[in-house]
Amino acid sequence: MTDQRSQAELVRQSLKRRYRKERRFRAYGILAIAIALSALVVLFVDIIGKGYTGFTKTTITMEVELDGEMMYLDDATDKKQIKMADFVEPLVQAMIKQVPGATEENRDAVRDLLNPYASNELRDMLEQNPE
Question: In Å, how far from its chain's centre is CA 43?
Answer without folding.
Answer: 16
